[in-house]
Amino acid sequence: MLAWNDPVTYIHGLTSQQRRVLKNLEVETVGDLLSIMPRRYDDYSNLVKIAYVPMGEPVTLKVKIKALKKQPTFRRRISIIKGLLEDETGTISVTWFNQPWMLEHLQPGDEIYVSGEARRHPKYGTGFVSPLWEPANDETLAAGHIAPVYPLTGQVTQKTLRKIMKIAVQDLDDIEDDLPADIVKEYSLPDPLTAVNLIHKPDSLESAEKGRRRFVFEEILFYQLALRLARNRADAGGAPDIKFNQSFAQKFVAGLPFELTPDQKRGAWACFQDMEKSRPMRRLLQGDVGSGKTVVAAFCAAMVYRAGYSVALMAPTDILAKQHAATLERFYQQHNISLLLLTSSARYLMEGGETIKLTPLKAKERLAKGRVVAVGTHALLEREQCPADLALAMVDEQHRFGVAQREALTVLERPDKMVPHLLSMTATPIPRSLALTLLGDLDVSIIKTKPAGRRPVVTRLLVGDTGRNMAYQAIKEAVTRGEQAFIVCPLIDPSDKLGAKSVEEEVFRLKNGPLKDIRLLALHGKMSPADKDRSMDDFKNKQADVLVATTVVEVGVDIPEATIMVIESAERFGLAQLHQLRGRIGRSDKPSTCYLVASNEEASLSRLRILEKTNDGFAVAEEDLKIRGSGNVLGFEQSGRGVFKIARPEDVGIMTQARDAAVKLLAEDPLLAGHEKLKERAEVMRRTAHAE
Ligand code: ADP
Ligand code: MG
Q: What average pLDDT does the chain have?
């Protein structure tokens, strides 16, 4: 007998190998283990024959191994096993990477199930790449013909995890239901034990979905309760009252190097109105890359500073924080506003016309003194760092939506219990129904039109070396005109997470060939913050013509002289991400071109053509959602690092139900005083969302 909250070590009858696997999973309780949701299911009741295998769709086949051998490779860390599979309708090839031990388990003549997606690969031909497999006589299949496919980490194999799950589910006691009975009834949710069984041992795909639905409902309900309790608490705390200062607003606008667009004015105006209320502002400023969100933030910050308080502006990276500080310094020149830059590598105070470098201690002291506009990375938001007179917190999270969700759960309380106003900025268009669920009843301002005089970025899709050479030619021509270019490399080797190898190899290749007379600079995640800064500064100061970088340039980097971007292996990126990337150019009145260089793969080419056709970020994001089904675009990260572990963007229907349930519960019991269990679970949700 096994209880939901028992430690996983209580699971009986595991082999020592299975125990080791369990340890690797880093789960504490049986409940944690059983909350690992299948990514999808293999349907062994619906087997496909080789002759009818569709490209790019998950399928399961029963086949015989015709040939299997290790293929020699020159790359040390990679091992390749090639095979040929057959059934009575034909043969198909298969490639397994980095599973050398397979040769000990399988040999020609064996019957196996494989499940995965067949693809056309430029190098390996048409076939399966690293599909799952099991011997055709395996007992796990006897249990039912629908087998869960779990997300895997490290050394854990699908087969072992399936076995462990099966044992755990078998021994599981009844689970106490934390949801009120009337809610369970109203939304026809299965009880928790039934749901767990449906998820891990389904007899059909429909019943598996029914089980998952219960967990999605719970997840969103607790998230919504946490969100709404936070909001109620913030409202009760009250916010500093920022009086709109009309003469200052006029002076500020007059001193800007450009005229604000109508949408920028509307955005700022909405914030000013919000901040005059005693209820803390919670506004999202949504606008495509390059639409000019920063100046709106700068304007709001100036107004709050003017009223006598501090402001914090948080950016996702050091580079971006530094750039925001430089931008604000420019906007604030004639206004005598104290500006403090706080990143892990640099701390500067710009005050009274001087710029001083500060020690960490001095920076902390200056922050504590208050009445300052502080710019930094998200660490700035940590409570002990916030000045006591913080009246406005602004978060430039770009498309990193998970961060915004976490912040939605935050109440930044000052020592006097007041709560600062909050302005988030994002370039991700979020459908309204999802926004309501993810962010609660948050106010949204949209910047739709881009600043006048902008030339839209022309995007061209190129294929292979011929295409690449055209892009290099364009770079050379741009450089002779005194313009600059970005070259973005994808991460090729999985061990090269920070892109150091990709970027350095690319720089080496370009220097010794196609771009040998051009001044190149590198930028990747493995460089120290100081080196990154130097690269960016040198590039900005035109000490180099081309910046070769990983997607670190994706976020907010503003180099107006850059008019060309070349994105290598463009097919490896999502559309929304490519759109973000190309937003780095087209920032001046000169024409800009983004070259997407793809290897020759038909499917992805038609997808990339969308970017040739439209420059509208909303349209691109919509296509991206359609193609990828869901997206980490919205903070539903498959890896489990997002706020939501179970819900997916397409669960909008049930999310809305859970939201309604939360609203109703709180209307009847605003502090959940009569629902201890719900309160507890909401609190757990809040805490785990922040711990990550
Ligand atoms: P994003 O919305 O992507 O954060 P930014 O705030 O970085 O965009 O603005 C992009 C560029 O447009 C900056 O160089 C900025 O100075 C410029 N800009 C912003 N607003 C205007 C405007 N109203 N007129 C002209 N240029 C503008
Ligand atoms: Mg920006």
A: 85
User: Which residues lie below 8 Å from residue 5, measured CB to CB, with a gap of 6+?
Assistant: 29, 30, 31
Distance CA 679, CA 688 (A): 14
Strands 354-357 and 347-351: antiparallel
Confidence at residue 638, expressed as pLDDT on a 0 to 100 scale: 46
- Does residue 284 share a domain with residue 424? yes
Strand partners, 121: 125
Residues with CB under 6 A from ligand 1: 258-261, 264, 287, 289-295, 451, 556, 558, 560, 587
Question: How far, in Å, from the CA of 291 to the mean position of ligand 1?
Answer: 6
pTM of the predicted protein model: 0.71
Q: Are residues 607 and 485 in the same domain?
A: yes
The 10s digit of each residue's pLDDT in 323-336 is 899 899 999 988 99
Q: What digits encode the pLDDT tens for the residues 98-134?
A: 777 778 778 899 988 888 888 887 766 788 988 888 7
Banded model confidence at residue 639, pLDDT cuts 50, 70, 90: very low
Domain count, the chain: 3
The verdict on 377 and 477 lying in the same domain is no
Final residue belonging to a domain, choices 421, 447, 473: 447
Residue 41 β-bridge partners: 148
- Within-domain flag for 56: yes
Q: Any idea which ligand is nearest the CA of 285?
A: 1
Residues contacting 193, CB < 8 A, separation 6+: 172, 173, 174, 175
